[in-house]
Design a protein that fits this description.
The chain has helices at residues 56-69, 119-128, 144-150, 159-162, 214-225, 231-234; strands at residues 8-11, 14-17, 20-21, 28-34, 46-51, 73-76, 89-95, 102-105, 110-114, 153-154, 157-158, 163-169, 175-178, 198-205, 248-250. The chain is α+β, with helices and mostly antiparallel strands.
């Protein structure tokens, strides 16, 4: 077991320990962090341990720490499909909220985005450039990572239709780059669901060169308003957190 600083306080009958610094990184793991503010429902208890990596090195160090400690890992994106028990989540919660880098390649028409980037925000960034292909995503809550894992889609479009490849990290630290074929996409699912690999970034093929004027913006607004504006309410019965002790994904 890791040597934890003896300084602690009590929060909800649980000890709150000093942050643990991961060697070789600027990343810190904190104990008893409330997850209520990190989910769309704003309810739920704390993570036993919580980390929000800002780089692949941080992610690898976080996974290595959890593996050494024999802890279950929960992967947390936007938290848009997660209901957390008041008792919280055991083990280490790894949040992708800071993995938000976005890069547009004007030559190829491809955009690469970090797993923590909001998929509707990415759609709007593409719209502002006059790039088509993501307009179906403006009304979908969640992140790029979650969209890749579940093959998110709406209004005739889906992740599988525009994904070039996804970069993944396994708990052992191995980095893989997988194509849509490798991911075994079917309707709203992929081979990643129920697994222990984390999507760190994804590259999508879009269609640049379209007019940025109102005609295009009308299309994206129509897509956004087609029954998906009250996102929190429509997801209220969607999913519950998985059985403690297993690796889980959210958002």
């Amino acid at each position: 077991m890791v040597a934890i600083c003896s300084d602690s306080s009590i929060k909800g009958n649980q000890p709150v320990y000093s942050p643990i610094s991961l060697r070789g990184t600027d990343c810190k793991i904190n104990s008893q962090v409330s997850l209520a503010g990190l989910t769309s429902f704003r309810v739920g208890g704390p993570a036993e341990w919580y980390v929000a990596p800002r780089s692949i090195a941080d992610l690898q160090a976080s996974f290595a720490w959890a593996d050494t400690e024999g802890m279950p890992v929960t992967l947390l994106g936007a938290g848009s499909n997660l209901l957390v028990s008041d008792g919280g989540l055991p083990g280490l919660v790894v949040a992708t909220r800071y993995l938000k880098q976005v890069s547009f390649n004007e030559q190829t028409g491809q955009v690469t985005a970090g797993a923590g980037e909001s998929i509707p925000r990415l759609a709007w960034l593409a719209a502002k450039r006059g790039w088509r292909g993501l307009e179906w995503a403006v009304g979908i809550p969640g992140t790029v990572g979650g969209a890749v894992v579940m093959n998110a889609g709406a209004h005739g479009g889906c992740t599988a239709g525009i994904l070039v490849n996804a970069r993944l990290l396994s708990p052992g630290g191995k980095v893989e780059i997988l194509s849509p074929q490798d991911l075994g996409y079917r309707y709203r699912t992929s081979v990643l669901q129920g697994g222990d690999r984390l999507v760190t970034e994804a590259t999508f093929q879009l269609q640049p060169g379209f007019d940025r004027a109102m005609s295009w913006r009308k299309r994206i607004l129509i897509s956004a308003s087609a029954g998906q504006l009250n996102l929190t309410t429509c997801l209220a019965a969607a999913r519950y957190s998985a059985i403690p002790g297993r690796r889980r994904r959210a958002g």
